[in-house]
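#onboarding

Welcome to the new folks! Below is a worked example of what a typical request in this channel looks like: someone posts a single protein sequence, and someone else replies with the predicted structure as tokens. Don't worry about understanding the tokens yet, we'll cover that in week two.

Example request:
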Amino acid sequence: MKIRRILATAVAAAVTTPVVFLSAAPAFADTKPTPASTQQTTPGDEDPDFDEYEKLLAAVTKAEEKLEALKAERLALLEDLRDKKVSEAVQKELDAAKKAVEDAQTARTAAETALAAAKDALAKVEADPAATPEQKTAAAEAVTAAEAKVTEAVTAKATADARLAKAATAHDDELVAMSTRTGVLKEQIAVAEKELAAAEKALEDFESDGFDCEEDGAVTVALSGPKTVTVGTSAVFSLRITNTTDRTLDQVKAYADAAALPDGEEPIDEDGFFKRYISVEWTGAGNPHWSPINEEFDSIEVGELVKGGRADVKLRLTVDAKTPAGPGVAFAVGAYENNDETCGIGEDYAHAEFDILAAKPDKPKPEPKPTPSETTATPTPAPTTGGNGNTTQQGGSSNTPVDGSLAATGANENLTRLGLAAAATVALGAGAVVIARRRKAGTNA
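Example response:
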């Protein structure tokens, strides 16, 4: 199963099941944000797999757009053929030619009527014994003039008929060309469908990479953290990754991200929404520095995990100063790959909800108090200890419980937190795609 489908399904389940608020883990001492460049890179650390994945994904998108454009063009042509709709210039000339023929016919009819009247007048004059030679000459000239008008009208009518024939031919030729184009488009659509299938196959092959990674419960994750995070600050969450199998897993990892859920008015950008406001870093054994989780370094690398073993890592969520107050969520999923080419992705998708609080305005500074003449020493408070002193490094065990919430199967009507809110559903679904797009299926990024 493709990792995109796995994550999307898992997140959808998380949204449509009862939400259990996670207990806030003790804050780690080191919560000061550090730049994303903390993670050291060396030449060759770049992720060519991700670059190739992006290229293949772009090829699929381009093939889809091409196919849709061809289909839309053919559909529009078929509708124009049905309505005999041609180009504006051709239609305009056809209409004008038809009008010219009508006008020419009207003029010819009028000329022929005038000629008949002139001939009747001439006949009456010639039959009248009292008619003068002048009258007879005038009547004869009127007939001659009417005959000339008729000849002129007949010529104009013939010209108009020729123009109409030419316009009608152009009209029909364009319809034929449109019909031919629909046939060509049909062939091009068939080719485009094959190209899209090939692009999707290439992407699917790259995602699977020869492995058949299915959902299983081999690696589980539990995520917990504070219930509130103030805008412009950071908070540390606890992520526990556990090997539930009876064998050692060679390469265990986890994928995690966080989101400020939209308010229903802000559009969701699937490719960038979840990194717009909250950045995520992690640290653990073998990785003492805060390392960013991004497209280049997309996973939390646990390494080998023995039977029943677990690894505890810290996630630091830094909320951008421009983040709007409202609900937020962190989510994670485990995965593994063995040297024998078996691999899997977690069945359960852990999530931890929290409230994003607006930053408090700066309080006005109080007026300085008069310095007393005598001061009394204030006892220094005894040092206190804090933080998770029982947290172990990767691959070890811990006696500090890490409370977590895993997505379960089924639905519940008591969804006061994430519920069935459409915005949250879309947001989490897009978040899964964001994670999935950073790696291939089978956790082989």
